[in-house]
Amino acid sequence: MLTYSFEEKGPEPLYVYLAHCIKNDIISGTIRPGEKLPSKRAFAKNLGLSVITIENAYGQLLDEGYLYSVEKSGYFAADVKENIRKKKTPVGEENLVLTGGRRQYICDFSSNAIEPSLFPFSVWSRLLRDELSKDRDRLMETPPAGGVYYFREAIASYLREFRNMDVTPQQIIIGGGTEYLLGLLVQLLGFQKTYAVTDPGFEKIGKIYESCGAVCRFLPVEEGGISVSALLKTGADVLHISPSHHYPLGSRISLSRRYELLSWAAEGDRFLIEDDYDSEMRTEGRPLPTLFSIDAGSRVIYMNTFTKTLASTIRISYMVLPEPLVRLFYDRLSFYACTVSNFEQYTLARFLDEGYFEKHLNRCRTYYKKKREALEEVILKSRLGKKGELLKTEAGLHFLLKIYSKKGEERLTAEALEKGVKIVPLSAFYHCKGDEEENVWVLNYSCEKEEALRKGVEILSNLV
Amino acid sequence: MLTYSFEEKGPEPLYVYLAHCIKNDIISGTIRPGEKLPSKRAFAKNLGLSVITIENAYGQLLDEGYLYSVEKSGYFAADVKENIRKKKTPVGEENLVLTGGRRQYICDFSSNAIEPSLFPFSVWSRLLRDELSKDRDRLMETPPAGGVYYFREAIASYLREFRNMDVTPQQIIIGGGTEYLLGLLVQLLGFQKTYAVTDPGFEKIGKIYESCGAVCRFLPVEEGGISVSALLKTGADVLHISPSHHYPLGSRISLSRRYELLSWAAEGDRFLIEDDYDSEMRTEGRPLPTLFSIDAGSRVIYMNTFTKTLASTIRISYMVLPEPLVRLFYDRLSFYACTVSNFEQYTLARFLDEGYFEKHLNRCRTYYKKKREALEEVILKSRLGKKGELLKTEAGLHFLLKIYSKKGEERLTAEALEKGVKIVPLSAFYHCKGDEEENVWVLNYSCEKEEALRKGVEILSNLV
Fold it and tell me: DSSP readout, A367-409?
């Protein structure tokens, strides 16, 4: 009969240890497939244990499938086809492209993330603490698919006041980042549709559409914005644009062109996705009216995000659906749970509702304006002022710098990187190469401190 | 020349008001398309304003596309094709299926959400407060696509200790809920693949695959689990299962069957998605070994979630990829930002790291075991004890109740609902109707308090 020593038993219960021993014997083949195990009573007697202990061990092994029982006959070892072999080849870190992570540059002009020190830690902490102590019930209540209603109300009144948009909370869908919401949109609008993105543009947007299984076309951005005739040539059904502020060109679409686009969308089952990603951070003039607010045909989906205004590490974005799509969304996609935590939805709702967001935006705008002006001054006073040119782009969180240097774009970019300054040429934002302007770089200044920007300009100056 | 009264001007700056007046005239057609506007100097003199004010107003209107300028000639009204018309037909709340929301039942046996009062508010608040005051820098630092590394390390050591899984943090991908991660998986494994889900099963899982554009097949669950020959008939490439605890049948897959499934997956480009959604909440025996831990062929994707152990309103889930898929993930999908907020990733990481999660789970298990036993007792003592039968299912957060009543399934379900008790028949979990057992209901007891469960049983008793 099977005999086990209990000398090596650790702190676990007896039955667990016994089950472990039997299992090892089954895996190693010491107990063969189909072999009958001792009766509980006989086994208990043999090992000097109680029948209950044996029963528990057998029960555990039955649970795990190592044993099977035959009525009125007893317990038998199951057929374990191969030995358990653990793979021991973890993926080496060197093979992984880890996006994000700790900074490694003296000055990084490539990131359009926002300045971390602007995050309103004290107000945020206070509101969150308040929620956690006072409103526990609602924190635990599953919100509708579109998100916490109170939060969507707060966004609706923000949009009414600051973007002149008249929307109901039901039209607003909250999601864990714009990228996630675009994935939902593809599910909503359809995989068989063709999506157009601008060229140049955010590389990521096209990648998302393609990754979600949709066909993506690249629409050249001309002087003055987007041409509807070029758009028609792409055969697109959906156009993704940032009419208020193109990235990286910085241009905006004129009202006249906007109506042409709305007219395009009104013909057939077409949609415009208005990505208003940094409208709040404009440091000059009033924000432009949105496509959504002048759309009478329910063809515009408005998207915005708090990752650009609050923190890129709090993943909260939203989209505003036109009426027919709201119905479709609730019909088709309301089985999805909202991807954003209630804790942060309620905190941000109060942040909006109690006026902190407006103050925060004002503070950010003042800060960025000052930084932008300082950077422009530093550039103009440096050798870049003579050997380069700040190209007039609308006031966002980046601008374009043309550099007249014999080194050429590629070499200058590489040399700068070697010295710890990351700059990205405009040409890198083009999907279809060939027509792009050379020797122009996109300078993002939002996430670097003035001192770092100063050093960055100094290093660049010495290279040209 | 254009003249405007400034009597109705509000608190806004003069130039903003002026721009507003001109814009209205352009929209209404009072200023015709192509009409030249007064020169800045003449207009200023006429209105009694400074030239700067006119300049600012014109600048704003240029920005917004209502004007265009011709060099050395002046400013002209743009061609605004149609009047701005605002849609005023918000979606009525009555048309919307809002999932979630406030409770409306005396007892809801349909929800497998967890008991909200178990959430560890005080520890969570303390850890979060600590993060917000001490580690602000890391909260603002964009994590890799897979999530905060420290959090993934904490999960890796949790899996090592409690699930006997030997994985590296790189293999772990964090996401805002299992639903989101399944969408990512479809992007990773491919739309052209066929995904099989069990029938009966969680309806949502199949919906997600279909919504993401993949083909979904339904695999009947037999006595003893899943049959590989039935699986082969579906033509599936990917099988989504919960081998430790099927929902709603409660059954588990035996070790022998597990090897058959691994053997199936090892032939060709096939994968098993092991959805281990409630393994931590088992109140009897030790958790079963995972498919992932006995997979030598890198064919198993392991998924688990904190929405079932911590709170359904904190959207944090994770998946563990086998080695070849880790590489593929970083190659193809690392452009995605992680959908979970850093604030909650760090808080939960510390919750795991400092041993609170283990304590929390023990507390939950004890609580649920007590509740389950109380509910079983109440049922057995009620008329349901005579007129019904608790079907033996493995100990999860639900069980099956067979009721012998002449009323029939549909009528009893409807009558219960009328009395405020929500019960869902097992047949509702079947996609392919016909073979399902009738007059069996799935009773979830996790999210209701004992008092509500008691009332629910009383009401049901009176109906049978």
Answer: HHHHHHHHHHHHHHHSHHHHHEEEE---SSSEEEEEE--TT-H
Provide the mean pLDDT of chain A.
87
Give pLDDT, residue A223.
66
Q: How far apart are CA A402 and CA A438, in angstroms?
A: 8
Q: Which residues pair with A240 in a beta bridge?
A: A197, A273
Chain B contact set for A89 (CB, 8 A): 323
pLDDT band at A343 (very low <50, low <70, confident <90, very high): very high
Helix, strand, coil shares of chain B as percentages rounded to 5?
Answer: 45, 15, 40
Q: Nearest CA of chain A to the CA of B283: how many Å?
A: 13
H/E segment holding residue B398? strand B398-403
Q: Is the pLDDT of residue A406 over 50?
A: yes
- pLDDT given at position B291: 94
B positions 33-72 inside 8 Å of A (CB): 59-60, 63-66, 68
Determine the average pLDDT of the residues in A250-275.
92
Task: Give me the numbers of helices (H) and strands (E) for chain A, helices first please.
Answer: 16, 15
d(CA A386, CA A407) in angstroms, rounded, equals 16
Partner-chain contact A66 B187, CB within 8 Å: no
Determine the residue of chain A that is closest to B395 in CA distance. Answer: A63
ipTM for the whole complex? 0.78
pLDDT digits (tens, 9 = 90+) for A346-357: 999 999 999 999
Closest among A394, A460, A383 to A422, alpha carbons compared: A460
Distance CA B286, CA B277 (A): 15
